[in-house]
């Protein structure tokens, strides 16, 4: 399931370099680069650390990219409640 993210935009707005964000999140700079380029989907733990470092939320930083998939999931969740 493709995941879109706005980590780079939020990082730049926060005035942080990739190196600084990587140090705050206790990961390598290469990991931050891969997350920003969407070649690596972060673990839930890393997603929360990035969100905390950028004074954001996981919901603001990451989202399901496919609208049809999103509506299918939403419909499934509603019908099961």
Automatic annotation (TrEMBL):
Gene3D superfamilies: lambda repressor-like DNA-binding domains
Xref: InterPro entries: Cro/C1-type_HTH (IPR001387), Lambda_DNA-bd_dom_sf (IPR010982)
GO MF annotation, one: DNA binding
Domain HTH cro/C1-type: 7-61
SMART domains cross-referenced by the UniProt entry: HTH_XRE
Domain of life, source organism: Bacteria
Record key words, sorted: DNA-binding
Name of the protein in its database record: Putative transcriptional regulator
Organism, scientific name: Rhodoglobus vestalii
Phylogenetic classification of the source organism: Bacteria, Bacillati, Actinomycetota, Actinomycetes, Micrococcales
């Amino acid at each position: 399931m493709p995941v879109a993210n706005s980590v780079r935009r939020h990082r730049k707005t926060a005035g942080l370099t990739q190196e600084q964000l990587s140090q705050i999140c206790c990961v390598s700079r290469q990991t931050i680069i891969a997350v920003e380029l969407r070649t690596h989907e972060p673990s839930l733990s890393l997603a929360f650390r990035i969100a905390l470092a950028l004074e954001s939320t996981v919901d603001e930083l990451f989202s399901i990219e496919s609208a049809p998939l999103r509506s299918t999931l939403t419909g499934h969740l509603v019908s099961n409640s």
